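TICKET: design request
STATUS: open
ATTACHED STRUCTURE:
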């Protein structure tokens, strides 16, 4: 016999039990002729709750922590873009100098040209890889950067500076995130790739 032939199905067992219970209750009607007969519960009411086919992700908590650090880095980066300066932000709480080098270049260019960032920068980050067995646990985050609601403005005039015509509105950026000794995840590398649209 196969497993399928020997395994009892919970829905069938529940339906049989429900029908048996209904018949037993109908037999105890108290002798009144006008008593309404009991009906068996429907199969839908006796079916077991649906169970997810995929098992829970054992790395879910670590992935959540990785994305929390990555997102916090971007919250601080947006603060810096709004004033073209990292002063007063907590960028170094979430990212190393190597990861921040591209942002620092952006901020230096913004300051030199007298612009600030306004609007919203869209993100769709996902943990693409996670290696918890490495000497330093490491994750790779892939993010779809969306510039459709982002703009740069000249200060103090507020004149909107259009994006370069070759600039894609949506592109992929990749970040390396490491868990350090203090159990904190830090962004250690960040690389935008305008050639990869998303």
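STATUS: resolved
RESOLUTION: sequence designed for all positions
ATTACHED SEQUENCE:
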């Amino acid at each position: 016999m196969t497993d399928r032939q020997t395994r009892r199905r919970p829905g069938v067992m529940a339906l049989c039990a429900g029908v048996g219970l209904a018949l037993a209750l109908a037999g105890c009607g108290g002798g009144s002729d006008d008593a309404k007969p009991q009906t068996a519960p429907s199969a839908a009411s006796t079916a077991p709750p649906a169970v997810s086919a995929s098992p829970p992700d054992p790395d879910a908590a670590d992935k959540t922590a990785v994305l929390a650090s990555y997102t916090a880095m971007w919250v601080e980066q947006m603060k810096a873009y709004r004033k073209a300066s990292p002063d007063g932000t907590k960028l170094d709480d979430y990212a190393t100098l190597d990861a921040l080098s591209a942002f620092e270049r952006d901020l230096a260019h913004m300051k030199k040209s007298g612009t600030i960032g306004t609007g919203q920068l869209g993100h769709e980050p996902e943990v693409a890889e996670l290696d918890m067995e490495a000497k330093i646990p490491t994750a790779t985050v892939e993010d779809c950067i969306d510039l459709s609601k982002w703009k740069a403005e000249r200060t103090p005039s507020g004149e909107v500076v259009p994006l370069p015509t070759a600039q894609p509105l949506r592109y992929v950026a990749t970040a390396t995130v490491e868990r350090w000794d203090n159990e904190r995840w830090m962004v250690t590398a960040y690389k935008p790739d305008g050639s990869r649209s998303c």
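CLOSING REMARK: The radius of gyration is 30 Å. The helical segments are 3-6, 10-27, 43-46, 60-83, 97-113.
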